[in-house]
Amino acid sequence: MSTIAEFSIPIAEFALSETLERQPDMVFEVDRVVAHDTTHVVPFVRATQGDFGELTEILEADTSVEEVELLANVEGESYYRMVWINRAEIIGYMVAEQGATVHEAIASDDEWHLRVFFPERRGLSATNDYARENGFTLDVTAIYGLGDLEEAQHNLTKQQYDTLTTAVERGYYDIPRGTNAKELANELDISHQALSERFRRATKNLVKNSLLVDEDEED
Fold first, then answer.
1. Total-model pTM
2. 44 three-class SS
């Protein structure tokens, strides 16, 4: 049975930990991952927030990055193609050995948050075993059947879903507001930047899956 799993990995155990130590406000989002083996992972990465002035040089100095190519700078966002080595092997194992697809991978607030599609449920179990045997802390936060995720959560991650529902419950969308962004971020134990990113991604997913459901047919 196909399975979608959401889990987190401490940044210290994964790729770009050195970059994020020097640029703690930066948020990295992986758009696509290619892996032909466990040792070399090729992600296409979008960087937001933080200081972009020396980002490319910082990435080049990161020991988890073998290659880095700046593809574009667009309205306060930078797009990169990278080759990850060393600590990215858990992703290489999922993609190359288990045929998994990384739907989302976001680094913020000392963790990488991932949503991964496994063609077979046993691929998730094998990944858990691999993580344990190789010293990775893999914290699985949610497991969905493919239909459950699409129908029940409009393609939202658990973090996005929890953020939106908490915001509604606390009156963030009320007029006047019952809470502000700083208070909401404190309650969720995340930074203001991470809260803003979650709102933006969640809103985009809701619009695409609820209001643009016929987009492909119209095209």
1. 0.66
2. strand
Contact 202/156 with Cβ under 8 angstroms? yes
What SS3 state is found at 45?
strand
CA-closest candidate to residue 75, choices 47, 54, 55: 47
User: How much is the mean pLDDT over the chain?
Assistant: 85
Residue count (the chain): 219
Residue 89 is encoded by which pair of tokens?
Answer: 């092997």
CB atoms within 10 A of CB 148: 11
Query: What is the rounded CA–CA span in Å between residue 106 and residue 138?
Result: 15
pLDDT tens, position by position, 162-202: 888 899 999 998 888 899 999 999 999 888 888 888 888 88
Q: What are phi and psi of 61, to 5 degrees?
A: -90, -10
Distances (CA, A) of 53 to 44, 104, 161: 20, 26, 33
Kindly report the backbone phi and psi dihedral angles of residue 78, in degrees, each rounded to the nearest multiple of 5, phi listed first. -120, 140
Cα distances (Å, whole numbers) of residue 55 to 26, 51, 197: 10, 7, 19
pLDDT in tens, 75-90: 788 999 999 987 888 9
Spatial distance between the Cα atoms of 117 and 210, rounded to a whole number of angstroms: 21
Question: Which amino acid appears at position 13 of this protein?
Answer: E
Domain coordinates in residue numbering, the chain: 3-145, 154-212
Q: Of 137, 143, 129, which is closest to residue 6 (Cα–Cα)?
A: 143
